[in-house]
């Protein structure tokens, strides 16, 4: 992302990866889209689970690999719905229903998109791109890239991330 800023953190457990997701969630607003990249088992859904908890959803958060997407209605009143998409199974969007993503990418919801590469050109309001990588055992490195248009609250997330280090 041109004009973007990166924040890097290292987590040593699923709970710390969830805390990193919660820290990012604190900076998001309805309509925002977060892209998640990383190989299988890197912790993308764990990161989303932490964000969903912080956004007021207390139910189970599981990978939507076989359903393409899930929409979580907040269990706490006054909070934004959460959309969780996984586009890994799709080879492209050209052969899909043009409205495939419409139920999830709504102005009232905060959306998290795993394996976003095929849809990225069509996605709007990208608030952050999160890259998770294995770093041995339960340790993960998490890089959050925020576009230049991101709100000043973005720096708050980096200050509260577990073992986070803000890059210049």
What's the arrangement of secondary structure elements?
Blueprint: E1 5-11, H1 14-25, E2 33-37, H2 44-54, E3 69-72, E4 82-86, E5 110-114, E6 126-134, E7 140-146, H3 154-160, E8 164-166
Parallel strand pairs: 2-5, 2-6, 4-5
Antiparallel strand pairs: 1-7, 1-8, 3-4, 6-7
Helix pairs in contact: 1-2, 1-3
Description:
The chain has 168 residues and is α/β, with parallel strands linked by helices. It is 18% helix and 27% strand. It has an 8-stranded mixed beta sheet with strand order 3-4-5-2-6-7-1-8, covered by helices on one side. Helix 1 packs across helix 2 (44-54) and helix 1 packs antiparallel against helix 3 (154-160). The longest helix is centred in the N-terminal third of the chain and has 12 residues, at 14-25. The radius of gyration is 15 Å and the shape is globular. The chain starts with a strand and ends with a strand. Residues 150-168 have low confidence and may be disordered.
């Amino acid at each position: 992302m041109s004009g973007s800023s990166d924040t890097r953190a290292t987590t040593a457990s699923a709970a710390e990866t969830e805390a990193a997701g919660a820290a990012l969630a604190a900076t998001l607003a309805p309509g925002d889209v977060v892209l998640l990249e990383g190989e299988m088992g890197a912790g993308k859904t764990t990161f989303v689970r932490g964000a969903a908890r912080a956004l007021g959803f207390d139910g189970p958060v599981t990978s939507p690999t076989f359903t393409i997407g899930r929409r979580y209605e907040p269990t706490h009143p006054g909070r934004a719905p959460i959309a969780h998409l996984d586009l890994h199974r799709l080879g492209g969007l050209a052969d899909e229903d043009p409205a495939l993503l419409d139920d999830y990418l709504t102005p009232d919801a905060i959306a998290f998109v795993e394996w976003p590469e095929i849809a990225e050109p069509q996605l709007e309001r990208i608030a952050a791109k999160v890259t998770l990588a294995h770093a041995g055992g339960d340790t993960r490195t998490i890089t959050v890239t925020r576009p230049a248009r991101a709100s000043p609250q973005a720096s708050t997330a980096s200050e509260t991330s577990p073992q986070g280090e803000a890059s210049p």
